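Let us practice reading a record.
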Amino acid sequence: MKAIAIVGSPRKKGNTEILARHTLKAIEEEGLDTELISLADLDIKPCTACMVCKKEESCPIDDDFWPIYVKMKQADAIILASPVHFGSATPSIKALMDRTGYIAYWNGRVFERKVGGPLVVARRAGQNFTLAQLAYWFYIMGCFVAGSTYWNMAFGDKKGEVEQDEEGLKTAWNFGKNVAFLVKKLKA
């Protein structure tokens, strides 16, 4: 059983990655394998709506996308994590959501009944919209979305500040525990 967290922040080892690693640690404690994928140095181009994926499970865009798609297909749980940029998810995570969504939708709904959910980090505002934006992807993919003790978000501006948000860390930790619980129940 494996859970992956995909971090859409352009900042390596920033607050979003810290929060995602914290969540993955909670999942690891429950016996699942985990992997963090950072989009920071990867080239994920936006979907061009060419509809090649409607005919076959592929994407003609030449970038770093396909290996991530394969890892998402193989995972039992998927976490999408993004900082808030101008009140929204980052372009890289949004591009990944659009392209994986199209391919999965037209090719057997390959993410259906996987477990997952969003993680969001905000400096001050925009977190609710970004959380919903990420969550909608899971809903349309037919995933089981794990809840927590509050919405899956934390606050922080400068690198490492998210570690001072005790409630945010607790929420992310409980989210990780719930992800692991659901995966194990579904695999039993």
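A brief commentary: The first helix runs from residue 15 to 28.
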